[in-house]
Amino acid sequence: MTALIFPAPDALFDAIGTDLGPSDWLTVTQEMIDLFARATGDDQWIHVDVERARQGPFGSTIAHGYLTMSLVNNFLPQMIDVQGISMGVNVGGDRLRFIAPVPAGSRLRGRGEILTVEKIKGAVQAVIRVTLEIEGSERPACVIETINRYFDEPD
Question: Which long-range contacts (CB under 8 A, 24 or more apart) does 88-93 make?
Fold first, then answer.
């Protein structure tokens, strides 16, 4: 997938309602889950104990919700490329929902929609709803409204 290119942050004002994506597929491996567990200290058996998880409610280990959410950072640059900036920063997220579990070995991709755009604190701020789809599932893994600020390059 090729990202939708915006030549400058102000170009986002004309893009409210624009669909973004889909991104490329990404396989969520057990190794990724294990590394996330080590980094966060969340080593609950539903994430890291493959044998026990086979007998559990999901039939396999599942990705942490916050691991799933963090993958938005992988997918956003595949969907949107705002050029002519000195930097872009993630300032948060709203309305985060974990809808379906992500079994180890699942493939995810992102889809987006530009919801709002406004000038704020010397930047253009865009709220982009990102939906993480699970290949073969009718229900997405999660949905979050990301808040992104794009700062103009200095003159």
Answer: 88/148, 88/149, 88/150, 88/151, 89/148, 89/149, 89/151, 90/146, 90/147, 90/148, 91/125, 91/147, 91/148, 91/149, 92/146, 92/147, 93/69, 93/144, 93/145, 93/146, 93/147
Residue 24, CA distances (Å) to 58, 70, 117, 139 in order: 25, 16, 25, 18
Cβ count within 10 A of residue 44: 12
* pLDDT tens digit sequence for 59-87: 999 999 999 999 999 999 999 999 999 99
**Full-prediction pTM beyond 0.85?**
yes
